[in-house]
Write a structure and sequence with these properties.
294 residues; alpha/beta; TIM Barrel; 2 domains; 8-stranded parallel beta barrel; two-stranded antiparallel sheet; globular; disordered N terminus; binds coenzyme A; binds magnesium ion; magnesium ion binding; lyase activity
Length: 294
């Protein structure tokens, strides 16, 4: 099973829920997903007002280009359950992002709360769930977390909180995160989930940013969070297969199918060996090229 390409989350733009100007701007941007934040980008004193403002904005008939996710506050805080309740009442909210998920129990709580609220309000489409893995406990509990609720679509890495949780510098280079990225990628893929890379904290589209984007795309992530509108296009492009790659994938799939037709399992395409394993890579490229939000 694999989630590659299935959720279509290439560029996911985080927008502070308390900032009406940025919300209005985000509506017209070309991100696959906008993640309206009620958590860390909202000051504690402004949590309730931000929740109310987001609810009123989303129910005002605003047209959004990207799919809508809302990052609620962490389970166990005084805001989480009311954030989730507000999201259930908003049909435009496709998913909630649960921060600092530490165990399967955190997601089981969210899943049961959603069950009851959806019954109460008669919601048409179930709210999907994305889990932010951004603590040492979340990493240690990953095997249980990925199986905690059938609502779960995606895992997302959060570097700033991870840095705080494990005592790593936020300035540590990309190489410092490889083991953690692979832990989350492998666990997510094993469970058929999409896996999305966390945001770079700089707002510029500079060499450091672009190297991180390239690294995430090559490593196998489905997409990446961004914090600034100027970063959307580079991320969308990096997570979209280039035309020559799609053409290669089509040739591989066709050539191997012809090979199988004549009883041959390994063939030569452009001087490279192609067998079923390479064809599986090619099919993933084609699935990702199809995009397709679910
Ligand atoms: N979503 C929508 N619009 C945004 C945006 C975002 N994430 N970030 C910036 N913009 C808008 C600004 O409002 C501004 O538009 P305007 O000129 O019409 O007012 C324009 O893009 C240029 O912004 P800029 O001046 O370069 O940045 P800023 O100083 O306004 O904001 C940040 C910088 C980092 C505060 C801002 O990008 C931000 O809030 N990012 C998201 C933070 C977040 O959600 N964090 C939590 C999850 S990681
Ligand atoms: Mg955080």
């Amino acid at each position: 099973m694999s989630g590659i390409g299935s959720t279509g989350q290439r560029a996911c733009l985080a927008v502070p829920g308390a900032d009406e100007r940025k919300l209005a701007k985000a509506a017209a941007l070309d991100a696959d997903e906008i993640v309206i934040d009620l958590e860390d980008a909202v000051a504690p004193a402004g949590k309730r007002a931000a929740r109310a403002a987001v609810a009123s904005w989303l129910s005002s008939g605003v047209r959004l280009r990207g799919r809508v996710a809302v990052r609620v506050n962490t389970p166990g805080t005084s805001w989480c359950h009311r954030d989730i309740e507000a999201c259930v009442r908003l049909e435009t909210v496709h998913s909630i992002v649960v921060p600092k998920v530490e165990s399967a129990a955190d997601l089981a709580f969210v899943g049961r709360l959603l069950d009851g609220l959806e019954l109460e309000v008669g919601r048409e489409r179930p709210v999907r769930v994305q889990a932010l893995i951004e603590t040492a406990a979340g990493l240690a509990g990953i095997a249980g977390i990925v199986a905690a609720t059938p609502r779960l679509d995606s895992l997302v890495l959060g570097y700033a909180d991870l840095a705080a949780s494990i005592g790593r510098s936020v300035a540590a280079g990309p190489g410092a995160w490889v083991a953690i990225q692979d832990t989350v990628l492998v666990a997510g893929r094993r469970a058929g989930l999409a896996v999305v890379d966390g945001p770079h904290l700089g707002v510029a589209v500079d060499d450091t940013f672009l190297a991180g984007v390239r690294h995430a795309a090559d490593a196998g992530f489905d997409g990446k969070w961004v914090i600034h509108p100027g970063q959307i296009d580079a991320v969308t492009a990096a997570f979209t297969p280039a035309p020559d790659r799609i053409e290669w994938a089509e040739r591989v799939v066709t050539a191997l199918s012809e090979g199988h037709g004549s009883g041959v399992g390994a063939i030569d395409v452009d001087g490279q060996m192609v067998d079923e394993a390479v064809a599986a890579v090619a099919r993933r490229v084609l699935a990702r090229a199809d995009g397709g939000l679910r």
